[in-house]
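Hi there,

I know you've been waiting on this one. I reran it after we fixed the sequence typo, so this is the corrected version. Both the input and the resulting structure follow.
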Amino acid sequence: MVRDTEEELDSVSIEKLLLRENRHYRELNRVRNSLAFKLGVEIVNAIKFPPRIILLPFILPWKMIDYALIRLGKKKYKQIESQSLDRKRRKSIVMFPTNGVGFGHFTRLLSVSRAIKKIDPEVEIVFFTTMSTLHLCKSEDIISYRIPGRKEFEDLDAAGWNALTEETLSTVFSAHSPMMFVFDGAFPYRGMLNSINGRNYIKRIWLKRGTMKKGATNIPRDSLEHFDHIIRPQDSVNLSVSDELPSDLDIVQCNPIILLERNELFSREISRSRLGISPHLTVVYIQLGAGNINQIGTIINQCIQILQKVKNVHVVIGESIIGKPVEISGPRVQILRDYPNSVYFNGFDFAIIAGGYNSYHETIYHALPAICIPNTNTGMDDQLARANVAGKNGSMLVLEEPNLADLEGSIENMLDPEFRSRLRAKCAETSLSNGAEDSAKFMLEMIDDS
């Protein structure tokens, strides 16, 4: 018994030493891979061997080009291997959702985490994220750590932010000894890649959805090689994964990932009671995304003006809890700043939404009749392609850059109960099962096999 205790103490002491040593490894990596170091080495070599001085006008520009290629992911990033300690790993999974203009990445990993907990409550889920909504993790009994996004710092460049990310995430790994790391984001951060590099005892998964605009992103092969598996949630657009990802990667596909199951939504009566809405009113939910894209404010105001001309219509404006407050008011207009708003879907008669991944698949899955106005000015997400599939199969009305007459005609159709019933039936036909459970089962199988 005493010997076991001594061995445990020795292991902890060695681990602390390696933790400090690995911090020095990481700092050495950053120095050796900096442009200043690379140029300095060439200058020093020329001083040591003067004939090389005449080559400096050629060597230095080439080193700068080489550095740029590494930064762009065109060349492999060379890293000094850190030391690791073989220790007993915990049944723990570290999830890293980034944040864009909305909740897409965060919601997908939260959905999968909830599914994992339902299957195996003993698994520890840890969130490491740039999202500010850690209270949502707390409500699901999920440990969470936050690192501010780079744009939240006034004077921190990309290299500095990546160094901070690498250090913080490495500390999380040391504290929780996870068996798996899952990333959900459009583009992997270098600091994150540095922290998972060499940790071959951790299964590394990238949960990456598709339907990106052509030419919007070019994922470096070096980034992909850091992951053991890629989980690709399906979308309405039936794209081959080879269009975006190399064919030799281990890619697992699943159905669209939805946060709430149908039986988790409030009933019509409870939804309206919680929102303080009369049962006899026709309720329209409007959620056109975040940011000033496609003149969102103008379109929302136009929709409200049209709906306020109709008696017994109540409007609920969905407002993101991470976005700026919506400056819209009026009679029979209500602001809903909550998460997830989908819990109230049974209380709405129809919706007017943008074509983001979450909004689109949630309305289809929960059979909420919808008018979709895709944001065509998004940087990467091809919302128009996604929405047009539903427009063609009749499960959703799709308006691209609508004028007032388009909005009036579509809203008039939606105010017809029989028209809405047909849309609900079509949604039920085209809806797929929730991919969160399949993703959770795959991750748990990977843990059991390790």
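Quick highlight: Residues 2-32 form the longest helix (31 residues).

Best,
R. S.
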